[in-house]
């Protein structure tokens, strides 16, 4: 990857110094904070508008990936297998990542599955980033 750089999991060509200066301080700060959160193994997701499901209203969810154990990973694989679902590569399987995130938040995986797509994507991206940052 000599000619490309990675930014938030998306490959792009290197930016020229002029283009780099266009990035505002707010974006840089937000990126640093997000990276710090993921590196600590905790991601807090704030919904733009409250999300309601099964009588519960969610304004914010905290995903503590650091507290997960090997047993949690095995239980996710077992749960998927009972439904004839398999993740050959958990780091690219949204199904696996959503189940992992649900365990990290202490909620049922069905809650994540019915969330608006933008929220689901941000949460599963955090799970993927955690897997990759821990050497998976």
Rounded to the nearest angstrom, the radius of gyration is 17 Å
Which bin fits the share of residues in helices?
40-55%
Question: How many helices in DSSP terms?
Answer: 6
**DSSP summary, beta strand count:** 4
Low-confidence stretches: 1-29
Describe the structure.
Helix content is about 50%, strand content about 20%. The chain has a two-stranded antiparallel ribbon. A two-stranded antiparallel sheet has the order 3-4. The longest helix is centred in the last third of the chain and has 17 residues. The chain is globular. The N terminus is likely disordered.
Describe the secondary structure blueprint for this structure.
Blueprint: E1 4-7, E2 10-13, H1 17-20, H2 25-40, E3 42-53, E4 56-64, H3 70-82, H4 94-105, H5 109-113, H6 117-133
Helix pairs in contact: 3-4, 4-6
List keywords for this structure.
single chain, 136 residues, alpha+beta, two-stranded antiparallel sheet, 4 strands, disordered N terminus
Short account of what is shown:
With 136 residues, this protein is an alpha+beta fold.
């Amino acid at each position: 990857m000599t000619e490309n750089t990675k930014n938030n999991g998306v490959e792009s060509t290197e930016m020229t110094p002029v283009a780099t200066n266009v990035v505002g301080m707010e974006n840089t700060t937000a990126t640093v904070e997000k990276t710090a959160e993921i590196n600590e193994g905790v991601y807090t997701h704030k919904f733009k508008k409250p999300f309601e499901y099964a009588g519960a209203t969610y304004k914010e969810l905290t995903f503590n990936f650091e507290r997960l154990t090997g047993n949690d990973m095995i239980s996710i694989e077992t749960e998927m297998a009972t439904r004839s679902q398999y993740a050959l590569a958990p780091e690219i399987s949204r199904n696996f990542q959503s189940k992992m995130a649900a365990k990290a938040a202490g909620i049922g995986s069905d809650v994540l599955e019915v969330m608006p797509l933008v929220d689901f994507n941000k949460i599963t991206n955090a799970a993927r980033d955690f897997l990759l940052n821990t050497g998976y």
